[in-house]
Amino acid sequence: AASSHTSARALLLARPRPRPRPRPLAGDAGLSEFCDAVVADPPYGIRAGARCAGSRPQDLVKPVPDDLRRRHVPRTKPYPVVDVLADLLEIGARVLKLGGILAYLLPATPDFDARRHAPAHPALQLLDCCEQPISTKYSRFLVVMRKTASWSSADPVLETRSRIVSMADAPFASLKERIFENNGAP
After folding, report:
1. How many other C-beta atoms can be found within 10 angstroms of the C-beta atom of residue 51?
2. Which of 2, 3, 13, 123 is 20 to 30 A from 108 in CA distance terms?
3. Count of CB atoms within 10 A of residue 168's CB?
4. Closest by CA position to 140, among listed 167, 171, 170, 165
């Protein structure tokens, strides 16, 4: 009996222990190179306008009194699709470990050539694009990129951002037009 107890215990100890489940990250993206992967389905604002925290330049920003900060909901402003994509690629380049994967969904029309027109970043290499047809007029693409170079806030963010912004409108050039043309207002 002792030997069967010992062998059962040895089996239990020899079995690999379950790994903790991955948890979504919520927090400051100011940290660098700590993620193995970033998976995103960002709000592109195709049908309903995407928004981000902040105020419009013409709005007067007043400080929030200390006693109201816990319940305070910050103002939001429109979040243009080019900024959504530029921020996504920039955050991916900063937080991914070298060799890490960025995967995101990109809505477009079926004639969109993701290999040629998907936004690029100097620290990220396009690995694959997979189309998911939604209808004969609309598709979305799963874009998968790998981090191939180190990147930090010290790198040329403004140059990179302007390059991303110039490419970011390609998937949406005719998409919004088609949606509104076929369905009326959003």
Report:
1. 13
2. 123
3. 24
4. 171
**Each residue of 120-134: pLDDT tens digit?**
888 999 999 888 888
Mean residue pLDDT of the chain comes to 75
Q: What are phi and psi of 51, to 5 degrees?
A: -135, 155
CB-count exposure of residue 130 (10 Å: 0-12, 13-18, 19+): exposed
Mean pLDDT of 25-54: 72
One-letter-per-residue 3-state SS of the chain: CHHHHHHHHHHHHHCCCCCCCCCCCCCCCCCCCCEEEEEECCCCCCCCCCEEECCCCCCCCCCCCHHHHHHCCCCEEECCHHHHHHHHHHHHHHHEEEEEEEEEEEEECCCCCHHHHCCCECCEEEEEEEEEECCCCCEEEEEEEEECCCCCCCCCHHHHHHHHHHHHCHHHCCHHHHHHHHHCCC
Q: Specify whether the CB–CB gap between 168 and 86 falls below 8 A.
A: yes
Separation CA 109–CA 101 (nearest Å): 25
In whole angstroms, give the CA distance from residue 80 to residue 51.
8
Give 147-186 pLDDT, tens digit per residue: 999 886 666 666 777 777 666 665 665 565 665 565 554 4
